Amino acid sequence: MDLITPNIGLAFWTLLVFMLLLFILTKFAWKPILGAVKAREKNISESLELAVKTKAEMAALHAQNENLLKETLAQRDEIVRDAKETATKMVEDAKSVSKIEAEKIIISARQAIEAEKASAISEIRSQVADLSVQIAEKIIRKELSSDDKQKALASDLAQDINLN
Fold first, then answer.
1. Alpha helices (H) along the chain
2. How many angstroms separate the CA atoms of 105 and 108, rounded?
C-alpha cells in the first residue's frame, strides 16, 4: 500500500526534482524549442505567401501567354489573308495581261489575214487579167486567121469610130 499512500518526503523530493527539471528546461531548453517552433512557423508562413505570390504570377503569365497567342493567331490570319489577296491580285493581273496580249495577237493575226487576203485577191486579179488577155489573144487570132475576117473586123471598127 505504499504506492497508494505517498510519503511526504517522497512527494517533497519528487516535487523538488520536478521543479528543478522544469526550471532547467525553461531556462535552457524551452526558449530554444519555442524559438525553433516560431522560426519554423515563420518559415512556413513565408513559404505559403511565396506560393500564393507565385501562383498569382503564374496566373498572370498564363493570361499574358493566352493574349500573346491570340495576337499571334490574329497576325497569322492577317498575313494569310494578305497573302491570299496578293495571290488573287497577281492571278487577276496575270489574267488581264494575258487577255490583253491575246487580244493583241488576235488583232495582229486579223491584220495579217487581211493583208494576205488583199495580196491574194490582187494576185488573183492579176492572174485573171493575164488569163483574160491570153484568152482574148487566142480568140482574136482565131477570128483573124483569114483575110476576109480581118477586113470585116476593120470595117466594123471603122463604122464604130465614125459613129462616135
1. 8-24, 31-143, 147-163
2. 5
pLDDT per position as a tens digit, 11-60? 888 899 999 998 988 888 888 888 899 999 999 999 999 999 999 999 99
Average pLDDT, the chain: 88
pLDDT in tens, 76-108: 999 999 999 999 999 999 999 999 999 999 999
- DSSP label at 119? H
Take residue 125 and report the three cell numbers written for it. 486579179
Contact assessment for residue 143 and residue 149, using Cβ atoms and an 8 Å cutoff: yes
pTM beyond 0.70: the answer is no
Query: CA torsion sign, 30 to 36 to 40 to 46?
Result: positive
Question: Are residues 146 and 136 in contact, defined by beta-carbon separation less than 8 angstroms?
Answer: no
Distance in angstroms between the alpha carbons of the first and the last residue of the chain: 192
* Whole-number Å distance between alpha carbons of 151 and 50: 143
Instruction: Judge contact between 153 and 144, C-beta under 8 A.
Output: yes
3-class DSSP state for residue 145? Answer: coil
- Residue by residue, DSSP assigns 35-62 as HHHHHHHHHHHHHHHHHHHHHHHHHHHH
